[in-house]
């Protein structure tokens, strides 16, 4: 009987140790902090969260209650492509700027909070930058403005 008890105790100890190790590894791999970059559009400085993976891009700014005046989210696409954005579960108005492979602004779309309308790039793009509503207009940024980071 004590042999069985000893084996069960050892098995439980090993299981707990590996379970804890597995949990730590999962946290290190899957709960990465949000990357942020300092960008410039012409002379305007922007602090942008970065969305690279499909999961990050799908979530976007959903649930974000507020952004600072020069804060946004930069979507980076591995290959240039036509992109459509929407505002499901985003509680604040946003503008999205679409940028081609050279970082040139090709279009800005205004997006209203909590809507399911799609806002598409007019051509294939490499980057999309979501900013607080009215941000591009307030700075008079038009087609041809240059994204740098």
TrEMBL record:
InterPro entries: DUF192, Saro_0823-like_sf
PANTHER family recorded: UPF0127 PROTEIN MJ1496
Protein's recorded name: DUF192 domain-containing protein
Taxonomic source organism: Parasutterella secunda
């Amino acid at each position: 009987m004590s042999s069985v008890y000893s084996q069960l105790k050892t098995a439980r100890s090993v299981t707990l140790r590996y379970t804890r190790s597995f949990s730590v590894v999962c946290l290190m791999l899957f709960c990465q902090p949000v990357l942020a970059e300092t960008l410039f559009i012409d002379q305007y400085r922007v602090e942008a969260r970065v969305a690279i993976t499909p999961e990050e891009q799908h979530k976007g700014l959903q649930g974000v209650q507020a952004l600072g005046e020069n804060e946004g989210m930069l979507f980076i696409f591995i290959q240039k492509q036509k992109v459509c954005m929407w505002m499901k579960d985003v509680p604040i108005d946003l503008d999205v700027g679409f940028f081609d492979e050279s970082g040139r602004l090709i279009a800005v779309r205004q997006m209203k909070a909590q809507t399911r309308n799609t806002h598409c790039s007019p051509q294939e793009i490499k980057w999309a930058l979501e900013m607080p509503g009215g941000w591009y207009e307030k700075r008079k940024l038009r087609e041809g403005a240059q994204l740098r980071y």
